[in-house]
Amino acid sequence: MKDSLNNKCFIQAGSAISPQATFDSDDWSRQLIASDTNRMECIEPAYAAFIAPNSLRRMSRLLKMGLTTAMKCLQEAGITVPGAIITGTGKGSLQDTERFLKNIEEYSERALNPTPFIQSTYNAINGLIALQQQCTRYNNTFVNRGFSFENAMLDSLLYLREHPAETVLLGAFEEMTAEHFFIKERAGYWKPGVNNLNFLQQGNTPGSIAGEGTAYFCLSNQQDSSSLARLRDVEMLYKPGAEKLRSSLQQFLSSNELKVEDISLLLSGENGDARFQQYYDAVEAALGEVPKLPYKVFCGEYDTSTAFATWMASKLMGSGETPLTVSNLLTKPYTSLQNILIYNNYMGDQHSFILIQKA
């Protein structure tokens, strides 16, 4: 994608619920919370400040997390009704899906409660946000596994190109239920006996650590003093070899008028899975001495983990400081942040680059 597609796009606000203390404090920057097992679970906030009690009791866990994250983001940006709501999710509300399937069996397909089915659809959170904010504008959800958030981001950039005076609420959401964790565990997705502090140290074995999270951003073409960062570009590659990955990275940087030495920090989606380490090694080799931060130590592995990486990049750009939790994980210190490159691959098939710049 050429830079002309995304001439000006600024992150005005960002909010995230994750396995770290990211929602209503900056504690994530001072203390890295260790998971007890190979499954990282979100630290959930008090929802009552954002959702009415009569609605709260009818919502599943992911719907509460997604809606609350979106409301907090809009609140921080000072926006009531966005011009568009665009999200990405790999699985949607698994809890509601599982509940509906169990009800089908339990009640022999008769007298089923429709609520779990309604809330299990991928666009349920978008609909809730639109209802709460009375937003009748463009509303879209992308479900493309490891490309879900990237496609939502690309659609946001296209929307702002066509509607330069408007704002976009961009987001992603994912949850890990006990049942889904068990199924993926049997398929070899997770490393046994690890947590988020040591799973990367076992990079010679297959599997990773399970994660989840929600993240939302308010995007605008207008830069002001509150802008956290500039969202410059995004690119997706399907099943590239290591050489194709390296050449695509060079083309991606060139199309944005950058050289390798212009990259201040690599936020790497490295997940400890030996089957896919070759791709991360290829990108790191192409970037040479660029400092690296493995962001999945904070959030775990899931379809839309790049949304958390984008949130982290915007916070690092906005603060201009190096948090203690980040400095402890860096391969080498960085001096100043001008360009942050996010690289991730999902199961070795879906690869993406996201470029975040200083506003």
TrEMBL record:
A GO MF term: acyltransferase activity
InterPro entries named among the record's database cross-references: Ketoacyl_synth_N (IPR014030), Thiolase-like (IPR016039)
Gene3D superfamilies recorded: 3.40.47.10
Superkingdom of this protein's organism: Bacteria
Annotated Beta-ketoacyl synthase-like N-terminal domain residues: 45-181
One matching Pfam family: Ketoacyl-synt_2
Annotated protein name in UniProt: Beta-ketoacyl synthase-like N-terminal domain-containing protein
Organism this protein belongs to: Chitinophaga caeni
